[in-house]
């Protein structure tokens, strides 16, 4: 149960941070480009790189990586997983990146197209 609470607490904090940073970006930079999302994705990827480099494990990993960074941006998890796959085989990482982005955009387009009125 402690593990679930750590992930939930971190996720709540990460989600609120994402909201605040996105709102700040919209306020100062406008809505013509998703600066907030871009900034969050880059910051989250840097933060998860630091966490992985430090070798966070156990409760700290659950709170900070799974919870906080997972709530802040799932792109950070995508970056971590891509990097881990790259260490095993570059082509596996490339396949994962292409499949995630390509199939994710395709799934969005299909579902959006079916439901848009």
From TrEMBL:
Signal sequence bounds: none
The keyword Cell inner membrane appears for this protein: yes
Transmembrane segments: 34-55, 62-78, 90-115
Reactions accelerated catalytically: fluoride(in) = fluoride(out)
A GO CC annotation given for this chain: plasma membrane
Regulation: Na(+) is not transported, but it plays an essential structural role and its presence is essential for fluoride channel function.
Entry keywords, A to Z: Cell inner membrane, Cell membrane, Ion channel, Ion transport, Membrane, Metal-binding, Sodium, Transmembrane, Transmembrane helix, Transport
Pfam families in alphabetical order: CRCB (PF02537)
GO molecular function, one term: fluoride channel activity
Superkingdom to which the source organism belongs: Bacteria
Topological type in the membrane: Multi-pass membrane protein
Residues annotated to bind Na(+): 70, 73
Gene Ontology BP annotations: cellular detoxification of fluoride
Compartments where located: Cell membrane
HAMAP family assigned to the protein according to its UniProt record, in alphabetical order: FluC
Family of the protein in this entry: Belongs to the fluoride channel Fluc/FEX (TC 1.A.43) family.
Function (record text): Fluoride-specific ion channel. Important for reducing fluoride concentration in the cell, thus reducing its toxicity.
Protein name: Fluoride-specific ion channel FluC
Species this protein is from: Falsiroseomonas algicola
């Amino acid at each position: 149960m402690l593990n679930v609470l750590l992930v939930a607490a971190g996720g709540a904090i990460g989600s609120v941070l994402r909201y605040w940073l996105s709102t700040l970006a919209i306020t100062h930079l406008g809505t013509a480009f998703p600066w907030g999302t871009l900034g969050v994705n880059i910051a989250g990827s840097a933060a998860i790189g630091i966490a992985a480099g430090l070798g966070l494990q156990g409760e700290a990993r659950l709170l900070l990586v799974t919870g906080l960074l997972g709530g802040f941006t799932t792109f950070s998890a995508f970056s971590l997983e891509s990097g881990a796959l790259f260490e095993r085989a570059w082509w596996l990482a490339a396949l994962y990146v292409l499949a995630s982005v390509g199939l994710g955009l395709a799934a969005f387009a299909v579902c959006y197209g079916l439901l848009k009125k």
